[in-house]
């Protein structure tokens, strides 16, 4: 008899928890001066409570224009039009965090978030946070999430949603410019790899059009942005000129149609802004002569599908610029400058 009583007590304690876990709660916030919480989904129904603007509530489900809400252990109803999704941000603290179709470790995996990614959640169920993935609710384990505070948000200004293509100029059979024992194809690859590391440390997703000494056609480079779903394209080059006195830093965008094929980059204004950010930040980091932002119809720019720029970091035909580009510390400064310009651009867009 005693044993039976004990098991009844255990069931009573566990039952409310099981009920909470069974239904996902979406966090919603009152978006009105105040909001009536009612006994039933009707404006003539009894008012249980009146809550002020900004109150965060847990919505269990939606029926018509009414949200069913769990409020202080009671089920109440509130008009849907005065509620908005309440988003909480978290940082991913796992090598890779699976995004699942339902809140279960055996559920289908829809995708994953990389370590350090900042994600937005709008609810929870048990040990799972609800995220929006490809336009629908999906679930991630809360055990691998760290709440984002003001300080660790500023530490990572970009997210894996910021997709960048870096294009190291030339490669393989095409060495590009040469001077003072340096080949452009090697310098551009080194700067691009350094910029990739820095941008990833800032939280971004970065692709290189080449990561080894291989030839890639200009058309393939331009097409790469669409292929990987990039937001921006940044081509990295070093300049060269017949006169050895020419030196400094130039950044190009494509602002007018090509004379031969009549093509133009679809985002000339944004490209110009990106070029301006990169020129300014790379000038600050390198102190090369500032030759400014210019328009040119290079294939990698005009045949691209996203805002695109081409930065010429110094002249290999100039002894001063070449002596700087020879050092890894200067190439690292160049990469930092490019990174900072890209971060400024994404802060705006
Ligand atoms: Zn070049």
Automatic annotation (TrEMBL):
Pfam families with a match to the protein in the record: Amidase_3, SH3_3
GO cellular component, one term: outer membrane-bounded periplasmic space
Presence of keyword Ribonucleoprotein: no
Any GO MF annotation of the entry: N-acetylmuramoyl-L-alanine amidase activity
GO terms classed as biological process: cell wall organization; peptidoglycan catabolic process
Record's keyword terms, sorted: Cell wall biogenesis/degradation, Hydrolase, Signal
InterPro entries, per database record: MurNAc-LAA_cat, N-acetylmuramoyl_amidase_3, SH3-like_bac-type
Key word Iron present: no
Signal peptide: 1-24
SH3b domain ranges (all copies): 25-87
CDD domains for the chain: MurNAc-LAA
PANTHER family given in the database record: N-ACETYLMURAMOYL-L-ALANINE AMIDASE, N-ACETYLMURAMOYL-L-ALANINE AMIDASE AMIC
Listed name of the protein: SH3b domain-containing protein
Source organism of the structure: Peribacillus deserti
């Amino acid at each position: 008899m005693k044993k039976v009583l004990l098991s009844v007590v255990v069931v009573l304690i566990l039952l409310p928890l099981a009920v909470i876990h069974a239904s996902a709660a979406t966090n919603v916030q009152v978006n009105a001066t105040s909001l009536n919480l009612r006994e039933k989904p009707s404006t003539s129904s009894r008012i249980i409570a009146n809550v002020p603007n900004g109150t965060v509530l847990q919505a269990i489900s939606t029926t018509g224009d009414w949200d069913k809400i769990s409020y202080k252990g009671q089920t109440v109803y509130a008009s849907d039009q005065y509620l908005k999704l309440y988003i909480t941000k978290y940082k991913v603290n796992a090598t890779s965090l699976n995004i699942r179709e339902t809140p279960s470790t055996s559920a289908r995996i829809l995708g994953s978030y990389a370590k350090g990614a900042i994600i937005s959640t709008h609810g929870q169920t048990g040990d799972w946070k609800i995220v929006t993935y490809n336009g629908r609710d999906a679930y991630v384990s809360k055990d691998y999430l760290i709440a984002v505070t003001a300080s660790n948000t500023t530490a990572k200004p970009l997210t894996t949603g910021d997709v960048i293509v870096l294009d190291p100029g030339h490669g393989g059979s095409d060495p590009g410019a040469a001077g003072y024992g340096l080949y452009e194809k090697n310098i551009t690859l080194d700067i691009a790899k350094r910029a990739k590391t820095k941008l990833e440390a800032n939280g971004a997703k970065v692709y290189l059009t080449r990561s080894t000494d291989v030839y890639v056609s200009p058309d393939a480079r331009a097409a790469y942005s669409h292929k990987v779903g990039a937001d921006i394209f940044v081509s990295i080059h070093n300049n060269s000129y017949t006169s050895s006195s020419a030196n400094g830093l130039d950044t190009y965008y494509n602002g007018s149609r090509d004379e031969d094929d009549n093509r133009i980059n679809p985002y000339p204004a944004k490209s110009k802004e990106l070029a301006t950010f990169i020129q300014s930040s790379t000038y600050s980091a390198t102190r090369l002569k500032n030759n400014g932002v210019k328009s040119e119809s290079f294939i990698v720019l005009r045949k691209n599908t996203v805002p695109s720029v081409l930065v010429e970091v110094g002249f290999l035909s100039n002894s001063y610029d070449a002596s700087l580009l020879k050092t890894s510390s200067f190439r690292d400064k160049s990469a930092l400058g490019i990174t900072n310009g890209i971060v400024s651009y994404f802060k705006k867009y």
